[in-house]
Amino acid sequence: MSPSGTWTNWSGDETCRPNRTLQPRSADELADATSSAAAAGQTVRVVGAGHSFSDQVCTDGLLLNLDRLSGLQHVDTEAGLVTVGAGTRLSDLNVQLARHGLALPNLGDIDRQSIAGAMSTGTHGTGRKLGNLATQIEALELVLADGTKLSCTNAEPEVLRAARVSLGALGVITSCTLRVVPAFALRAESRSMRLAETLGRLDELVDTNDHFEFFLFPHTDTALVKANNRTDEAVRPPRALTRGIAEFAENGVFEAVCRAGRRFPSRIPRLNRVVTRLMAPSEYVDQSYRVFASRRSVRFTEMEWALPRAVCAEVLQEILRVIDRDRLDVGFPIEVRFVAADELSHLSPAYGRETAYLAVHMYQGMAWEPYFRAVQDIALAFEGRPHWGKRHLMEADELAARYPAWDRFQAVRSRLDPQGTFTNAHLRRVLGPVGISGTAASADDHLIGSPTTKGR
Ligand SMILES: Cc1cc2nc3c(=O)[nH]c(=O)nc-3n(C[C@H](O)[C@H](O)[C@H](O)COP(=O)(O)OP(=O)(O)OC[C@H]3O[C@@H](n4cnc5c(N)ncnc54)[C@H](O)[C@@H]3O)c2cc1C
């Protein structure tokens, strides 16, 4: 939030001016502010770390930030369950869990997000046996528009399935109870590989590694493949100097290459070929959370598609064909990851199918729409579902057809936020107005039950 009261997201291309911002110190203060705003007809939104690429946080009403509702609240090592304040950043949570000999089983490639923000958009890492991060949620606490506090647990699975990935459409999450695992180390290996070999061996690479992903540089035939596997070996992290050089290459050198590409787009293919020649193999062992997350200082915007795993190679080749055909200036690599099917969240992009995620990026200040539109057309032809935290150009009626449990989500939404207090312009576009597309709302009412109120 700037001193002028303007909120801006991480990539710097979405802004809004809320009527009021608040960092509540307690769930009661949060509930009072929410119910007052709702009574005044204002929209209420929550910002985590502002790392989503869309305008989904934006409001001209009340913008809440839960940084003061953060930290470990309860640890049950035996049961492998922890309860954390919703504003807790993943980076802080990882360190606190490590002190208890615990860890999250998987993470995405950064750790700056808040726990509630990451869960709410279906944030994921890579690993064919691991679902997105929201699959770790055992329970969560919500504050509804009228200030009511609602415990979402397996006692009412329909509400919990709606609340795990909800884009903030149901209420304000104040805490989450997560399933965690004993702390573990990973052997991290990365190297360049010919694209043809990567795609030819894709199933083997995905199935024989705990966490496999690759980055493909458009205009080259080279992929950077990364495999992280659990190990009992003693940790031998990269030396500070080596890590520093790697971070400089990933951020400083890459920033310079991106700037050169933005200034002289016709040189992007040559720049990409130089970058792939500079990629050196690396191997080290470290605690899981230090391996998963990297520092990202190069600013960009992003679109990502969840696709049936079986079509991954075909979709990738089609994207490369269109980049060549339409002479699109694409410097950033395409990132490819793999996630297990789940049906624990109605809006999980991996709902009901083993998933390959393909992410495309555009450096800040460059036109992203022609590229992203072309990628979206391809992804839609292969049953793609967009990542909820990233850019896409889809609307609610098109999205509804891609989510088998769409109506069940809408039924819970109509029940928990009947006035649409948490629905801003972005949510109206991607979820529709409250009550409209929930065709199964009344039929499913018996599944939902009444909110379990505590205190208010
Ligand atoms: C550099 C970078 C790297 C990324 N890497 C990955 C990756 O590896 N994998 C991946 O899947 N995604 C990735 N993302 C996307 C990112 O994980 C998601 O956009 C995530 O939602 C951001 O978390 P946040 O805390 O910043 O949430 P925000 O962007 O602030 O909010 C996201 C949504 O959650 C809602 N929300 C936040 N807190 C609450 C709350 N307490 N109660 C109710 N609703 C709430 C917001 O209203 C909004 O709708 C990356 C993003 C960036 C910028």
Brief synopsis:
This protein is of the alpha+beta class and 456 residues long.
Please outline the helices and strands.
Blueprint: E1 7-8, E2 15-16, E3 20-22, H1 27-39, E4 44-47, E5 62-65, E6 72-76, E7 81-85, H2 90-99, E8 102-103, H3 115-120, E9 137-143, E10 149-152, H4 157-164, E11 172-179, E12 181-182, E13 185-194, H5 195-200, H6 202-207, E14 211-216, E15 222-231, H7 240-263, H8 268-278, E16 282-287, H9 288-292, E17 300-308, H10 312-325, E18 334-339, E19 355-363, H11 369-381, E20 385-386, H12 396-400, H13 406-416, H14 425-430, H15 441-448
Parallel strand pairs: 3-5, 4-5
Antiparallel strand pairs: 1-2, 6-7, 7-11, 8-12, 9-10, 9-11, 13-15, 13-16, 14-15, 14-18, 17-19, 17-20, 18-19
Helix pairs in contact: 4-13, 10-11, 13-15
Flavin-adenine dinucleotide binds next to β4, α3 and β11.
Question: Could you characterize the architecture of this molecule?
Answer:
It contains 15 helices and 20 strands. It has 456 residues and is α+β, with helices and mostly antiparallel strands. The protein has a domain at 185-396: FAD-linked oxidases, C-terminal domain (Vanillyl-alcohol Oxidase, Chain A, domain 3, 3-Layer(aba) Sandwich), CATH 3.40.462. The strands form 5 sheets. It has an 8-stranded antiparallel beta sheet. It has a 5-stranded antiparallel beta sheet with strand order 6-7-11-9-10. Strand 1 and strand 2 (15-16) form a beta hairpin. The model is unreliable at 438-456 (pLDDT under 50). The structure holds flavin-adenine dinucleotide. Flavin-adenine dinucleotide binds at residues 10, 45-52, 56-57, 66, 86, 108-110, 113-114, 116-118, 120-121, 123-124, 167-168, 172-173, 296, 387, 389.
